[in-house]
Amino acid sequence: MTIIETNVRASAVTRARRLLETKFRSSDSAFLAEGPQAVREAIRYGQVRGLFITQESADRYTDIVESALKRDISITLSSEEVVESLSSTVTPQGMVAVVTTSPHSLDDVFTEQASLVVALAYVRDPGNAGSVIRVADAAGASGVITTTESVDLYNPKVVRASAGSHFHIPLVEEVEISTLIQTAHSRGFQVFAADGSGDSFTSGVDLSQPTLWIFGNEAWGVPDEVLSQVDRVVSIPIYGQAESLNLATATAVCLYASAFAQGSKN
């Protein structure tokens, strides 16, 4: 690590920068993880192909460099300009890792031990999706699933918002909603949709059973076609004057309510 890469058009940098686009993330089976938390977890749990890091960050985060070296990961000391060219944010954090995508299936999520699963139906905002992955990880969910026409979960903004949780739980993308619900039922899960039109938590909703929670688009919520297929539509009571909760907050309330109920049952 004696030569610092300063050329943003260098072949390795160009190949990595391709991963800012969905089509290349798909064709290359790889994505970018940016910042110390995401990179640290990617090295610990993921399959990192290479690391671009500035000298300042290498000096500051010696644990990350040491972990990468122990795993024989290629490390490219890079100028700020090179790291900025790989970043999707205006304030890059000094390091970007190229990570191999680890595809998962519904079988990886609906395991015998699973009791809490999250699905995002037509959710488009990457920041919200990443926050949901983080909440799901924290609440002990066994996976996050997206329906067709949802955001790419390997979008750099999603990865950054998940704060490393990308590497802790299975992620499954572009599942047809009917297939998802049928699979959940076949594995003994009840299927709830979180929507303001539903029954309140306070109306005797049983959260102690294995549950698939479905959350909808930020602007228009869960589509009627989905609401008609679930076992129950559940709403979060609003005690103040707020019109609604944002997606990540609503997810946290629902998942932790289920986690508490399931924990008290065991």
Short description:
The protein has 266 residues and is α/β, with parallel strands linked by helices. It has helices spanning 11-17, 22-28, 36-45, 55-60, 62-70, 80-85, 106-109, 126-139, 156-161, 177-186, 224-227, 247-265, and strands at residues 30-34, 48-53, 74-77, 95-100, 116-120, 144-147, 171-175, 190-200, 211-215, 232-235. It has 12 helices and 10 strands.
Task: Describe the overall structure.
The chain has helices at residues 11-17, 22-28, 36-45, 55-60, 62-70, 80-85, 106-109, 126-139, 156-161, 177-186, 224-227, 247-265; strands spanning 30-34, 48-53, 74-77, 95-100, 116-120, 144-147, 171-175, 190-200, 211-215, 232-235. With 266 residues, the chain is of the alpha/beta class. It has two domains: 11-100, Ribosomal protein L30/S12 (60s Ribosomal Protein L30, Chain: A, 2-Layer Sandwich), CATH 3.30.1330; 106-265, Alpha/beta knot (3-Layer(aba) Sandwich), CATH 3.40.1280. The longest helix is centred in the last third of the chain and has 19 residues, at 247-265. The termini are far apart. The mean pLDDT is 93.
Q: Taking strands numbered 1, 2, ... along the chain, how are they ordered across the largest sheet?
A: 7-6-5-9-8-10
Run of helices and strands: HHEHEHHEHEHEHEHEHEEHEH
CATH superfamily name of the largest domain? Answer: SPOUT methyltransferase, trefoil knot domain
Classify the fold: give the CATH topology of the largest domain.
Alpha/beta knot
Average of per-residue pLDDT values: 93
Identify the CATH class of the largest domain.
Answer: Alpha Beta
Question: Poorly predicted ranges (pLDDT <50, ≥5 residues)?
Answer: none
Largest sheet: 6 strands, parallel
Q: How far apart are the termini?
A: 52 Å
The general outline is elongated
DSSP helix count? 12
Give the helix level as a range of percent: 25-40%
